[in-house]
Amino acid sequence: MAETCRRKLEASVLLLSFFFQSGIIILISSECSVLLYETMEKYAVKRRNSPQSLQQQRCLNNGTCQAGYTDKGFSCKCPYGFTGAFCSKACSFDFEDGIADWEMTGRAFIYQPTFGDNPTYRRRESANLQGDWWIGGAEKRPSESDTAGVQHSNGPDVPQGTLTSPCFRIVGKNISFLIGGGCDLGNVRAELIVDNQVVRNETGNCSETMFRKSWDVEEFIGQYAQVRLVDESSGGYVHINFDDLKGDIICPDDLDEIN
Ligand SMILES: *[C@@H]1O[C@H](CO)[C@@H](O)[C@H](O)[C@H]1NC(C)=O
Ligand SMILES: *[C@@H]1O[C@H](CO)[C@@H](O)[C@H](O)[C@H]1NC(C)=O
Ligand SMILES: *[C@@H]1O[C@H](CO)[C@@H](O)[C@H](O)[C@H]1NC(C)=O
Ligand SMILES: *[C@@H]1O[C@H](CO)[C@@H](O)[C@H](O)[C@H]1NC(C)=O
C-alpha cells in the first residue's frame, strides 16, 4: 500500500521534470513565478530549453498568491473547497461516483455505496448523508431501484471487511469526514494511514447518524496517505457508516500536486 503511494510519487516527479524540460509551465502571478523558479532549482530539475512562451496565470478559483508558507516557497491561499498549489478543486471522496477506485477485502462492504437515507425506511434515525450516496455498512441498497430499507444479506453486523481509499496527498492541517454506525473503536473504525502506519482513528456513536469529525494532520503535510474503513467483528452494532471525506488533501491525479 505504501509502495503504491511511493510509485505514484515517483511518477509525479517524472511528470514534473517533463513539464520543466518541455518548457510548458503554467505560472501564476509574477510574484509566484519568481518563487516557482527557485522551487525548480531546489528540485534540481534541468531545463533543456528556456521557456519562451510562458503563460502568466493567477491562482485559480479566486486564490491569492502568497510568498513563504511551505517548502514550496510559495502558495496560493485558497477559498474553502479548493486546494493545492494552484487552488484547483479539493479532492473529496463522497461516493457519488461509486467506490471503484477503493480497495475492498471481506464482505462487509459488498453492497456499497448505499443510495439514499436507507435507515429511515426502517424507522431508524437518519444517516445524515451528504448527496445521494454513502457507505452504510449495515445497508443493502446498491442502486436507486433496489427496495429501500433492506439490510445486508448476511445481517447488518455479521460481515467483516475493509475498504481502503486511493492515495491522496496531505497539503494542510485538516481532514474531515462524516462517520456513524458502531462505537467500539477496537472493532470498527476509520483509520488514517501514512507510511504504512495507522496514525489516526475514529469511530461512530452507536447511531446510524453520521457526525462530522476531523483529524489534525499538520504533522503529515506533504505526505501521501490513505483512509481505511475497518470492520473486524461480528458483534452487535459493529458496522461503519462513512461519507464525504474531504479537507486539505489533493488527489494524485491532480496536476498541481507536482508542486
Ligand atoms: C470569484 O469571485 C467572484 C467575485 O466575488 C465570484 O463571482 C466568483 O463566483 C468567484 N469564483 C469562484 C470560483 O469562487
Ligand atoms: C476541520 O474541518 C471541518 C469541516 O470544515 C470543521 O468542521 C472543523 O472544525 C475543522 N477543524 C479544525 C481544527 O479546523
Ligand atoms: C487509535 O489511535 C490512538 C491514538 O493514535 C491509538 O493509541 C490507538 O491504539 C488506536 N486504536 C486502534 C484500535 O487503532
Ligand atoms: C453521541 O451520542 C450521544 C448520545 O446519543 C449524543 O448526546 C451526542 O450528541 C452524540 N455526539 C456526537 C458528536 O457523536
UniProtKB/TrEMBL annotation:
SMART domains: EGF (SM00181). Coiled coil: none annotated. Pfam families: EGF. Residues 49-88 form the EGF-like domain. The chain crosses the membrane at residues 12-37. Keywords: Disulfide bond, EGF-like domain, Membrane, Transmembrane, Transmembrane helix. Disulfide bonds join C59-C76, C78-C87. The keyword Lipoprotein does not apply. This is EGF-like domain-containing protein. PROSITE patterns: EGF_1, EGF_3.
